[in-house]
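ingest -> fold -> write
write: protein_1
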Amino acid sequence: MAAEIKVPSLGESVTEATVSKWLKQRGEVVAVDEPVAELETDKITLEVYAPAAGTLAEILADEGANVPVGAVLGRIAEGAAVADFARTAAHFPVRGEREGPAKREGEGQLTLERSGPAVRKLIEESGLDTAQIAPTGPGGRISKADVIAARAPAPKLPPPASAERELRVRMSRLRRRIAERLKAAQNSAAMLTTFNEVDMSEAIALRERYRDSFEKKHGVRLGFMSIFVKAAIVALKELPAVNAEIDGDDIIYKNHYDIGVAVGTEQGLVVPVVRDADRLSFAEIEQAITALAHKARDGKLTIEDLSGGTFTITNGGVYGSLMSTPILNPPQSGILGMHKIEKRPVAAGDKIEIRPMMYIALSYDHRIVDGREAVTFLVRIKECVEEPSRLLFDM
């Protein structure tokens, strides 16, 4: 009897996906819970897993096809040869099981054992030695990007003919969705941006003072993002309009603080959400952000990870941006932009001193947030970051 490979539930309001890649080909043996295809929605990329062990007998949706939830992507003929299944299952442990320790000696082998089944298969198909692959994934794992980077460079192509000097590529679902949302934000909101600057001296000193002990105790680095998240929550509590949204003729004030943190990936910008950030410690915020960033870059974010944020923080400074006007993330009414820290001469009392300064920006929906509230919001951020002790005493 054939087992059907179906499009899984894609989350609230998402009814369709695009088949971006088949990871197995017709006639290949598959193990239960082995990833067989990748789907792309307008929010995430997700893997589809084999519902049974056997042979991939049919592929009913080609790469690039749009498929609704519940559609049959292909069929698996059950009852593959025991030897073939055992060999495949040895390479692809059941999803959710904890993998055992490395069977062979050597750091490269350990790294391979800790990588996912799709990565291990890609390594085998590429004929690469794991010792030649530099792992950059979480916990020293080898990621797909690491394998691709380690492959032999593609042969050089001759220069294109004059008629081929342009390349037209269809936008991915994620890129189209990003474009739609950004344009919708500009069209629907009365968007305005206000700026301030922050002296980062105390925040830098705090991080330097506790960097090693913090990482040793909590297993994560102490960054600036947790400080800004905590500072934003102080400001949001004082100025609730920035944490609200417009719904028709109503204003919905949120009494919870789910902070979206913008993460850049190869596919585009995504904004996973740190839930109830006001209830988390600095360490828990850093751990949550690190985990979400790894999921984003590995293409493992879920719909739940991306839904329901009340306010967003984006850090263009990691790319070297000195100043920008971030665009709202609808239906939110505010987004905080962090930027590059740069030493500049500033007035310190009656003296001129060189200080590490950061420009910060708040883009807001002027329909709900007044100018006074926006300016006050950034002042509160500035006060909290310049005197981090305020955050400890909720001031």
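write: protein_2
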Amino acid sequence: MKVLVIGSGGREHALVSRLSQSPDVDRVFCTPGNAGIAADASCIPADMAAPDELAALARTLEVDLTVVGPEAPLVAGIGDTFTAEGLAVLAPDSFAAQLEGSKIFSKQFMADCGIPTAGFAVIDSLEDLDAQLDRFTFPIAVKADGLAAGKGVVIAKTRDEAQDTGRKMLTGELVPGAGQRLILEEFLTGEELSFILLCDGQNHFAFPPTQDHKPAFDNDEGPNTGGMGAYCDTRILPDDLRDTILDKVVEPTLAGIRGLGHPFCGFLYCGLMITPDGPKVLEYNVRMGDPETQPLMHGVRGDLAGLLASAAHGRLDPSLVTWSDGPTACVVLASEGYPGSYPTGRAITGIPEAEGLGAKVFHAGTRLRGGCYATAGGRVLGVTAGGSTLAEALETSYKAVARIHFEGMRYRTDIGRKGLARYH
């Protein structure tokens, strides 16, 4: 097999790294990739928002499977384009991709299908905003309708903050292009859970549960980011809760989108809040999460390429992979200022020493400068490790983190803390 991975972040590096280990994979390509991915795959420049260009690349490379990492190509219709041209791709069509591409579509879909979620209101204007705010108690979530690279959600603690945030979204000041419409959403309390599935249009297979850490700083403080770390541990999800999620969320979601004439093929990410009233959906993604993919890929064993190909061809075969017995964890190293503006071009040292401790360092925002790695993004590296226990996986990850340095480097020191508290 020859496989093409689309994307340029830590999620894509994790996918490339594991796909290259599949027994039948001869070569892995990535577009556009990054400096770390280039060590594991042939990186080729291309416009990720241009499905026709990506299809032409897949034909030129004669790949047997294309795996899409980020959301933008999916929402742009890469699934439709590749399918129409007879190219194997692991991707939903553009209609189903609205589950992530439009918060308004997804919330109305959940309401129509009876899927448990937070109460919400659709906002189209400043007048709507003023009128609907009185329906809610605070804090509330203010969510831009469109894609916002993980930065389109603000938890507003007061009415004034919600009004100001909503105004900035509607006018394009806060998330340009994503917030001409928005959602006001009831704030849910509980513990977050990432539940990711692989689907072939009819069947589905659930990956082990993971937990992301969105806020920028320790103790879940600061602005939301694309994710500052994650861990994977089967104990996150007791069997009875897993059954409830499958019955109340997964089955109605897949049946609902299939009933609209668009069977779902690809990765379906259900972002859940486990509330006192049971699991409720915070959001859908139509791709693997980042950084959840890093600990998931660190723990998978067997023929990942075969598994993904089986889903793309409508013959999902979960028996092709198994999972490590112990937990895995990823700590994201970010540039100062992230998720706001941040500097780039800062030299990175210590990656070989970190990997010498048993960790795997996935590159998210790096480039080569003078033969050495340098920062090129807000999230720079994902330091990932496994262990027989969650404590051991985290200890190895943080020991490896301590070997890495770049000016302004920052990271959360409490990744996995909720899991540790739960199990001890």
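write: annotation protein_2
The two ends are 45 Å apart (CA to CA).
The first strand starts at residue 2 and ends at 7.
pipeline exit 0
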